[in-house]
Structure formats: structure tokens, C-alpha cells
Fold:
Amino acid sequence: MLLIGLGVLAVVLVLVYLAFYNTMISKKNQVTNVFATIDALLKKRFDLIPNLISSCQTYMNYEKGTLTQITELRTKAISGNLSDDQKVDLENQMTKLLGGIKIAFENYPDLKASQNFLQLQAALNEVEEQISAARRAYNASVTDYNNAVEMFPTNMIASSMGLAQKKVFEVPEEERKNVNVGELFKK
Amino acid sequence: MKSAEEFAKFFETSLQVPLAELEQKRKQIVFNIWISLLVAFGVLSLLSIFIGSAALIIFPIAALIVFLIVRFGFTKNYVQEFKDKVIRSIVAFIDPSLNYRSDGFIPMDTFMSSEIFKVYPDRYNGDDFVSGIVGKTQVTFSELHAEYKTETTDKDGHRQEYWHTIFKGLLVIADFNKNFEGKTVVLPDTAERLFGGFGKMLQSWNLMRGQLIQLEDPEFEKLFAVYGDNQVEARYILSTSLMKRIVDFKNKSGKQIYLSFVGSRIYVAISYSKSLFEPRVFKTLLDIRPAQEYFTDLELALGVVDDLNLNTRIWSKQ
Structure:
């Protein structure tokens, strides 16, 4: 009788363990999955850049430096072999540069009148909005995952699986500051 | 969008004449109803002399039937005329380019394709169909009432039908300003409290909704629950600013709001307990208050475009 009782208990414990184990795996994969989406969106943005540069170059005389920097970043990004952290870092730099150049567009009415450029600008806005959505999704899934890593009882399973907390996306310090338009034109 | 003051002026200049004409008809109808009731009362009183105390039971039922026949039979033309003259001109006042069909409504398959309501209606009708373009955005809406039926059979084999409302109110459909592929549904978070009794509805909601999407805006999360098939796309649609705008829209309307984003359109269902855009029968029409209500309800529906910023076309969808 006692033996059967112990047997049942063991089976229940194994099932509970499996359930928690699978929960952790699915949360971890969710994070990876969303990160892959960000990666894909970043690539989509990098693909827009050559067109953007060629449209702008004809008009923009004062932002040549920024345009070159953007091209360099893109080359670095598509060369591959980057860690996740490096990717995030590149993405942040790119966001900052593109933000600056977007403000500069305002000074070039000829550029803004070009149909080609308008389409490009819309595509860029779209991909940036998607990147921002993907970042939010990433942060939500990381928070969910981190909660599971820290909270009882999943924290015990997490430590036995060797799962550690992950970092959420943070807005880089520079992006939080108000954009200094004057500074941008000195480049 | 027109202001309340502009509407008051419009009421004075353009609605007084048709309303005064309709007021005559309304008085006639009320008179007819009283006469019919008196005649029915007389006939029943005579009958009761012959059939005795059984009349006590028949009497109230017969009176009710007579009343309903008279009420809806007499008012049919009156309602039609009211809609053609008054509601049509209020719609035109808001925006002359809008189309209005008093007997039209959003078809049931469109209602179902909104994905907001999963229960298939057994009875479906509506009226007051409005369509047009506001700024750059195609928009249509109509009043709808969708119901499903349940039946119970007692031990004697008597069947009893019950009708439950799935949705009653305005369904607004507009072209959304971003491209997307999946489905995202925003439901009131109080659904459980409101529809606790309707087990059928709750079940289908929970089982068929896809992933729960938890968003960052605490005020939004308190009011709504979001389900969708793609975590990133749902956030692409529900940007932080759109969440804020939806909360504001809900507060402004003071109603239960359901939204969905399907097939590059946005569906907004605004729940009402009363029937909309119907004329009063037992009170005067010459009062501005009911007219103001028609105006506010129409503006609320059309306001979806501006309130949710659908004319902002800075993404690749033009």
C-alpha cells in the first residue's frame, strides 16, 4: 500500500517537473524567437539603406558625413559574425543616425517632393515602427521569462537547467536626450 | 467634425420644418393608439359579459397584443419618414459626401469576419447604414443586433426558446493605416463579469482566441484583453500611442468597446443598450435633446477615424 502510494507520488512529481521544465523551455524559445524577428527587421532596414543613400546624396550636401557613417555601419552589420550584443549595439547607433538624417530631410524641399523618396521614407517609418514593436515584444517575453527564472517553483527548475536571467532592451542614454539639431548639422 | 453649437444652429435652421411636419403625424399616431385601445377595451368589455370571469385572464393579454400591433403597425411609415428626413439630413450635415441608407446594414458575414464575436447568430438584423470617406480613410458603419437562441424542454415536452444578445450597437469598419497579415482582437476585460451567465460565449472566447498578448500600458491592460496570432504584429498595430487613443475613445464613449484588426481593416464595435436613431412616439419631437443624441452617436462612430488617427499615412500603406 505504502509502495503504491510512493509510486503515485513519484509519478506526480515527475509529471510536475516535466510540466515546469517544458514551460521554461517554451519561455526561453519565445525569447529567442522574438529576437530572431528583431534580427529580420533590422536586416529589412539595412536593405533599405542603399536606396536611401542614393536618393539623398544628390540633394544633401551638408550631411555627407552622416551618410558615409550609415553606409559603414551597414557594411559592418551585413558582414555577419556578430554576437547578439553587438547587433543590438549596431542597431542603436543606426537608429540614432537615421533619426538625425530624418530631421535633416526637412531642409530639402526638393528631396521631399520626390515620389521615390516619399515611398522610401514611408518604408523606413514602417520598418522602424515594426522594430519598435518587436523590441516591445522582446521585452515582454524577456520579462515573462525572467519572472519564471526568479519565481518559485519554476526558479528551482531554471537553476537546475542552468538558465539565467536575460536583459531587456534599454533605450540607449543618447536616445533619451533630446535631439540636438544644431549639433547634427555641424557634421 | 462639427461642434455642438454648430449643430444647435443647424437644428434651428434646417430640422425645425421637417420635425414640425413629423410632429403632426406623431400626434395623429398617439391619437390613433388611444382610439384603438378604447375600441379594444369596449369590445372586450362586451365579450366579458358573455364569457364571464375568463375575460379577466384574456383581457390584459388581448390589450397588450392590440397595443403592440397598433404601436408598430401605425409607426412604420412614420419611422421611415423620420429616418429619410431627419437622420439623413443630420448625416449630410456632418459630411455631405457620406451615403446613408436607412434600411441597409452591415452583412452578417462581414460581422463574423470581424472575429470579435465567435458565436454564430441565429437572428441578425440592423439598420442605418452609413458609408463614405473621411480624409483618406474609407469608413462604414451601421446599427446591428445579433442574437443566438437556446432551447429548453421541460419534463412535459414543452419547448421554450430563449434569445440572448451577442451584440447590440454600432459596428464601425474602417481601413487601417498600416499593413498587417494576422488577426488581433481587443476585448473588454470585464467580459467575464458582464457575460458571466453566457457560458457558451465565454467558452468560445477562451478557446478560440489564440495567444494572449500582454501590453505595457497599465491603463489599457486594465480595460482590455488582447488576443492575436502574432506577438510582434499585435504590438506593431497597437503602438503605444494607439493604446492611449483607444483608452481615450472608450472613456469618451462611456460604452463597452470591442476592436479587431483583420484583413487590413479595423473593426470597432460600440455596445448600446437602446435602439439608435429611432424617433420618439410618446414625447414631442421638437425638443433638441433627442436630435443631439442622434448627432453625438453619429459623430462617435465617424470619430473613430480621427480619434484613432487613421488618416496618418506615414507608412507604406497610402
